[in-house]
Amino acid sequence: MTRKLSLTVNDVPIKLDYFVQGYLDHVTGGIIGSLKDTGDIGKLELALDNKGQVTINLNGCDVPLNYFANDIVKSTILGMVAPLRE
């Protein structure tokens, strides 16, 4: 079952079909699950700014990322959304 999710790029909402929603849900869920002390996903907000800094808020709490984790998450997210360009 795929959770409800939305994707916004530069304040523009991106329409997602069922496959893309499921794919993004499962990949981001795997990323969050691999981070230390994260627990179950209730509400997740993941953002990538124009300087390449990733912020993750999980269930109302910020998840700290070191340089390596930030770079891996950033690269994965960019790789997933790049093919969605129209």
3D architecture notes:
The protein has two helices and five strands; from the N terminus they run ββαβββα. The chain is of the alpha+beta class and 86 residues long. The strands form two sheets. It has a three-stranded antiparallel β-sheet with strand order 3-4-5, with helices on one face. Strands 1-2 form a two-stranded antiparallel sheet. The longest helix has 17 residues. It is globular and about 30 Å long. The termini are far apart.
Backbone structural class: alpha+beta
Shape: globular
Multimeric status of the protein = single chain
What gyration radius follows from the Cα positions, in whole Å?
Answer: 13 Å
What helical percentage do the residues reach? 25-40%
Search tags:
single chain, 86 residues, alpha+beta, two-stranded antiparallel sheet, 5 strands, 37% helix, globular
Write a brief caption for the model.
With 86 residues, this protein is of the alpha+beta class. 37% of the residues lie in helices and 22% in strands.
Topology (SSEs and partners):
Elements: E1 7-9, E2 12-14, H1 18-34, E3 44-48, E4 54-58, E5 61-63, H2 67-81
Antiparallel strand pairs: 1-2, 3-4, 4-5
